[in-house]
Structure formats: structure tokens, C-alpha cells
């Protein structure tokens, strides 16, 4: 090719290397595909898809007949090298995933990294992502946020995962599966506190789209009471940690206090925390009261 327009339309003559497009596809509603994404997918030489059968249905609906090849997490390294070779030989290739933006909890990292190493042009064609869709509608701070991918599936690692994020001040975004949502919210309640604001963003852009902003406890109880909320695809958006007003403790003192408060009276927990951490009893006492009040 000698020209690559930004609408994705390419004309091929005598350019040596092709390029790699990273194309976002819908997360439910077909109409969310952009005209530019359709143009790119129609005009590239090949589409690398996570699941060719799944993407085949989408491409058929969009009347796109471009040849599809599989690039999934099990063959990513081996196939990335082949794809890069084809691009070097002049092919334009688009990467798509089953839904949303490739590389966001989806394959493609190795391919894109290799493309950069090989000085191949990588062009994003942005569009839907469950992460950004959920965040934009959650009603929580968006000036700073962190995306943490999927919550661990097993109880122990999941508790530890939430515990490690107790003091994360940014809004947090997690992907979660419907059959674990109740257990996950139980662990979130115990590690981040029942009053932490959490948003359930379920089935985004689809018929049963649900966005519910509530305290962790209220949200969990609401989901338990309605089995329909335990179905479909889920993003959790969680409010960041806000220190109780006026008082902060050292990490050791706060951790000790939180653990002891689960087993002992407030008075005993405060005394032992002061003995262990060396911090002033009065300060710990105020912090403990604020913690209790926020539960
Ligand atoms: N690459 C995708 C993206 O950009 O959003 C994410 C792929 S990841 C393998 C799939 C997870 O994304 C689902 O388990 C769910 O947590 C979330 N997800 C995808 N589509 C969704 C939707 N329509 N509503 C809510 N969550 C969704």
C-alpha cells in the first residue's frame, strides 16, 4: 500500500510493510460499532480474532467478508510472530476480541509489543469497552481511577485482593462473573466495609442493562433478593478509600486496629493497637470510633 487514510480505507500498491489495527467491537449492542471500525475491518487483508466462530457471527451481521484467523491466549505467542511476518510482507491486519476493546482483559498484548519491537505501525480504532462504559455511568469520581481486571475466583485470594485495596484512594473498576457476585460482595463488605459505595453495571448496552449505585451491603442484599441480578456480564465500580475526617494512622496501626476490631471490644482493640504500634491511644480511639460509625 502507498496510502493509509485515517478512515481506515487503504489502497495497495508498493508499500513494503502493512500495519496492525486494534479495533474495538460492541459489548452487546451491535449499533455501537463505529463506521470507521467497519471500514477498517472490510479493507484489511485479514482479521485476527479471539474466537473466529464468535466473531464470524458479528462480521456476518455487518456484511464483512474479510478472512478471519484465530489469535487466542493459548496460541498468542506463536501466532503473533506469524502475524507480524505477514504484516512485514505487506498485509494489513486488524485485531478484534470477542467483545469490546482488545487487550483489556483480552489477548493482544504480546502481538502489539512485538509490532512495536518490529517498528510496525499500530493504529487503534477506539470504541466500546465495558470498563469505560461502567465508569462513565457509575456516578463515582472519574478524575482518578484504576482498572484491576477480574476479581480472583477463589475465596482466599479474593479476600486478600480486596484487603490489599482497603486504602486505595482512586475509584476501582473490577470485572466479575455472575455466579460469584454474591460471595465477592460478601468479601468486599468484610474487607472494604459495608458502607463503601459500589456500583453494579450489568449487561451494559443490552436488553437487561442494570446500573445500581448503593452501599456494598445494600447492593449485596438487593442482588441476593433478585436472582436475575446474578446473571449476565458484570462490572463492579467501587468508591476509593476516604480517610475518616481529621485522623490518619500509620499503616501498621490501622491494619492492627481493623483486625482487632473484628474480634475484640473497641476498648480492648484500641489498647492493644496502641501497645503494638506505639501510636497515641487517643488518636487510635478517635479513628476506631470513625470506623465504627462508617460501618
Ligand atoms: N475487552 C472487553 C472490554 O473492553 O470490555 C472485556 C473482555 S473480558 C474477557 C469480559 C468481561 O468484561 C466480562 O466478564 C464482564 O466482566 C465485562 N463485560 C463485557 N461486556 C459487558 C457488558 N455488556 N456489561 C457488563 N460487563 C461486561
Helical amount: 40-55%
Give the ligands present.
S-adenosylmethionine
What is the number of helices? 11
Query: What would you say the CATH architecture of the largest domain is?
Result: 3-Layer(aba) Sandwich
CATH-defined fold name of the largest domain: Cobalt-precorrin-4 Transmethylase, domain 1
* Largest sheet geometry: 5 strands, parallel
Q: Which superfamily, in CATH terms, is the homologous superfamily of the largest domain?
A: Tetrapyrrole methylase, N-terminal domain
Topology as H/E string?
EEEHEHEHEHEHEHEHEEHEHHH
**CATH level-1 class of the largest domain:** Alpha Beta
Amino- and carboxy-terminal Cα gap: 62 Å
Number of domains: 3
Widest beta sheet: strand line-up: 5-4-6-3-7
> Low-confidence segments, ≥5 residues, pLDDT <50?
none
Explain what this protein looks like in three dimensions.
This protein is an alpha/beta fold. It has 3 domains: 2-127, Tetrapyrrole methylase, N-terminal domain (Cobalt-precorrin-4 Transmethylase, domain 1), CATH 3.40.1010; 131-238, Methyltransferase, Cobalt-precorrin-4 Transmethylase, Domain 2 (2-Layer Sandwich), CATH 3.30.950; 245-294. It has 11 helices and 12 strands. The protein has helices at residues 35-43, 52-61, 76-88, 109-117, 130-138, 155-164, 181-192, 216-225, 251-261, 266-277, 281-293, and strands spanning 3-4, 10-11, 20-23, 46-49, 67-70, 93-96, 122-125, 145-150, 171-176, 197-202, 210-215, 234-238. The protein has a 5-stranded parallel β-sheet, sandwiched between helices. A hairpin with a 7-residue loop joins β10 (197-202) and β11 (210-215). α3 (76-88) packs parallel to α4 (109-117) and α9 (251-261) packs antiparallel against α10 (266-277). The N and C termini lie far apart (62 Å). The mean pLDDT is 92. S-adenosylmethionine is lined by residues 27-28, 97, 99-101, 104-106, 129-131, 175, 177, 201-206, 233-235.
